[in-house]
């Protein structure tokens, strides 16, 4: 490996730029990415910028242009040969209905799918062709694809640059990092599905119990002792029955949060992000000054998770008072007066999933992210778009500020900060999707009734 690096470093810089650009462009243009993904080339370019063989700025520009050109050629090939593929014998076996479903899915996901695919090996090789074959307009494809190219190429080159002498280790962990991205995408899909299920079943504990009662053992118990269960429910009364149902729902939320946290912990652990933790920590440590540390500590102390949870509780109570009446189900409670409850559950889960030896989640970062996202969600729900944009902009700025401040003080690592932000945002997304799903169901039911 060292001999190969020495040979590459002895080449003229312009030749390295040309060869690397051809490899990166060919990944999608010639479909060689199905055999050899292009991250290794970008990491090597980043390492060569670290050694001084190449310059970081020009290297980023050349690699971004090459990747964008390769995707444009792949899109063009899909547009030109896509109809011929569908008319072929293989396309006929796929069937017109499946092609129509693929077109509808790509049209529904649109640019978000194009951007996400750039981060997944093999998918980024095929998606530009599928987009072209599906008839997606290039002016819709290009901005999202360019955003994916800039972030993916920039991250890969910068990781190679920051890794420095650890380049070989980064290359060795490349496959694991790709697997971590796939797991992350699957986790985000699971978050959306969980939110949609919760939106359709705003009382999750009761919905699961109703479905479980249809199973043979419980169905037998219900048939044999149904009257006894009915008398017990009357004995409890509606108030205690509601409290028991809400408590069961909170326990269920705790279990869901634990699954999400453990999944994201696996993503962070196997992503290779920890390789740059030491470099980033050293960079921040070299720039600490007593005055800046004192001001940063004050900001971190002011915007603590506990104080933000109290703020969420106050805002939720005020909004719930203005928009009465409430519904007696779990989703209505955690989306109005009890909006602070998921944050308390998440704080407990983050502590439990942090890990014993290595802290992979900073509980403060997790709770701060979820609290700021929840505040933005509460304030933007039903508001005009300038208010919604302002709320989410402030929330994003707050997350970045607190995460950067804790990095500056050495209270958390870069990989831990990324994992915490992912966990906090994913947890909020569950309830946002659930609320939107129920709103659509209510609106659809109302329109049907009319």
TrEMBL record:
Keywords: Cell membrane, Membrane, Transmembrane, Transmembrane helix. It comes from the Bacteria. InterPro entries: DedA-like, VTT_dom. It is a multi-pass membrane protein. It is found in: Cell membrane. The chain crosses the membrane at residues 14-36, 56-75, 144-164, 176-198, 218-234, 240-260, 267-286, 298-318, 330-353, 359-380, 387-409, 415-436. Residues 37-161 form the VTT domain. Belongs to the DedA family. This is VTT domain-containing protein. It comes from Micromonospora andamanensis.
């Amino acid at each position: 490996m060292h001999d190969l690096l020495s040979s590459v470093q002895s080449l003229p810089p312009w030749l390295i730029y040309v060869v690397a650009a051809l490899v990166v462009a060919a990944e999608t243009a010639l479909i060689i990415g199905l055999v050899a993904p292009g991250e290794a080339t970008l990491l090597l370019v980043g390492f060569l910028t670290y050694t001084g063989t190449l310059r970081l700025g020009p290297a980023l520009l050349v690699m971004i242009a090459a990747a964008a050109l390769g995707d444009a050629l792949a899109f063009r090939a899909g547009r030109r040969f896509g109809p011929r593929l569908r008319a072929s014998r293989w396309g006929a076996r796929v069937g017109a209905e499946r092609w129509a479903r693929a077109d509808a899915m790509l049209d529904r996901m649109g640019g978000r799918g194009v951007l996400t695919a750039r981060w997944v090996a093999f998918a980024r090789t095929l998606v530009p062709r599928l987009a072209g074959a599906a008839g997606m307009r290039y002016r819709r494809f290009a901005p999202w694809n360019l955003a994916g190219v800039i972030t993916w190429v920039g991250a890969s080159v910068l990781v190679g640059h920051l890794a420095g002498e650890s380049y070989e280790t980064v290359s060795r962990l490349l496959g694991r990092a790709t697997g971590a991205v796939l797991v992350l995408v699957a986790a985000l899909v699971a978050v959306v599905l969980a939110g949609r299920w919760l939106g359709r079943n705003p009382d999750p504990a009761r919905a699961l119990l109703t479905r479980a009662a249809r199973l043979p053992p419980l169905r037998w118990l219900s048939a044999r002792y149904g009257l006894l269960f009915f008398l017990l429910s009357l004995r409890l009364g509606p108030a205690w029955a509601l409290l028991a149902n809400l408590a069961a729902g909170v326990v269920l939320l705790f279990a869901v949060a634990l699954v999400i946290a453990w999944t994201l912990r696996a993503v962070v652990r196997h992503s290779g992000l920890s390789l740059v933790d030491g470099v980033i920590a050293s960079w921040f440590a070299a720039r600490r000054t007593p005055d800046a540390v004192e001001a940063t500590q004050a900001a971190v102390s002011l915007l603590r998770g506990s104080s933000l949870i109290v703020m969420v509780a106050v805002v939720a109570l005020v909004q719930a008072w203005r928009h009465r009446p409430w519904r007696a189900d779990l989703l209505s409670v955690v989306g109005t007066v009890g909006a602070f409850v998921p944050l308390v559950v998440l704080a407990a889960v983050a502590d439990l999933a942090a890990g014993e030896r290595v802290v992979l989640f900073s509980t403060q970062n997790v709770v701060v992210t979820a609290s700021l996202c929840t505040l933005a969600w509460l304030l933007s729900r039903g508001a005009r778009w300038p208010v919604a944009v302002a709320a989410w902009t402030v929330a994003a700025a707050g997350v970045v500020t607190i995460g950067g401040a804790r990095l500056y003080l050495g209270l958390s690592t870069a990989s831990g900060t990324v994992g915490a932000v992912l966990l906090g945002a994913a947890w909020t997304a569950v309830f946002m999707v659930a609320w939107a799903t129920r709103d659509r169901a209510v609106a659809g039911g109302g329109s049907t009734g009319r």
